[in-house]
């Protein structure tokens, strides 16, 4: 048999052997790049058991919700009844991120009454705290230092940087512990990761009892100038969208204050109705 005939026969044998192998084995076994057919929509995976995530930010879609870093890809959200926890309004595509630059780096970070981790988990260039868009209260707590509270409005797709240096307390003065929200049921197994840094010790404040469900309203506030300071019921708010705040809030009367150096100070009472959005435009120029 000539060399050319042997070569052709060898090629034919390899082709037949490759076709006889299970899908993907031939290419992968020879170390070649192989592109297996991919599903058109990720929803086709939902019937499969959810594998554990190797890292909570593996797809950049994991958000901190109710004390867990949860990936909505794995199932319905929220996983608890809306009637029991009415303050969550999930929109998967509208995530936001918060970078926390603060000292001490070991200070605990709480979001809406849930422990999220420590400052060191969220202060790197590629590290941030992924949250749902909307209003949140972020608390920095470290024993022996003055507790810091920030009320923030996060515009969809935005990034906010919070910078703080916690103030050491005088001898004998105790740190104010954050208020904690009643615990919520964990998401389905394999769909979440716990905080990267485990909580070393619970704060001194006791967990409040299970609160009755309260339907909320929404305050849609626009202010001019956009750099003006804003307080709602005496608490300062900051926003990633200057001059615009969308805050889920209890129904009833609320005091809104807007002020800035060189402009008149303004305050007003606004009534928020359950289940409705109340717009409010304030110009102090």
Topology:
Layout: H1 3-20, H2 25-29, E1 63-65, E2 68-70, E3 95-103, E4 108-111, E5 114-118, E6 129-132, E7 134-141, E8 148-154, E9 159-165, E10 192-193, E11 217-224, E12 229-232, E13 235-239, E14 244-249, E15 252-259, E16 266-272, E17 277-283
Parallel strand pairs: 3-9, 8-13, 11-17
Antiparallel strand pairs: 1-2, 2-10, 3-6, 4-5, 4-7, 7-8, 11-14, 12-13, 12-15, 15-16
Structure description:
- With 285 residues, this protein is mainly β.
- It folds into 3 domains: 1-37; 49-193, Immunoglobulin-like; 217-283, Carboxypeptidase-like, regulatory domain (Immunoglobulin-like, Sandwich).
- It is 8% helix and 34% strand.
- It is built from 2 helices and 17 strands.
- It has helices at 3-20, 25-29, and strands at 63-65, 68-70, 95-103, 108-111, 114-118, 129-132, 134-141, 148-154, 159-165, 192-193, 217-224, 229-232, 235-239, 244-249, 252-259, 266-272, 277-283.
- An 8-stranded mixed sheet has the order 5-4-7-8-13-12-15-16, with no helix packed on it. The chain has a 3-stranded antiparallel sheet with strand order 1-2-10, with no helix packed on it.
- Strand 12 and strand 13 (235-239) form a beta hairpin.
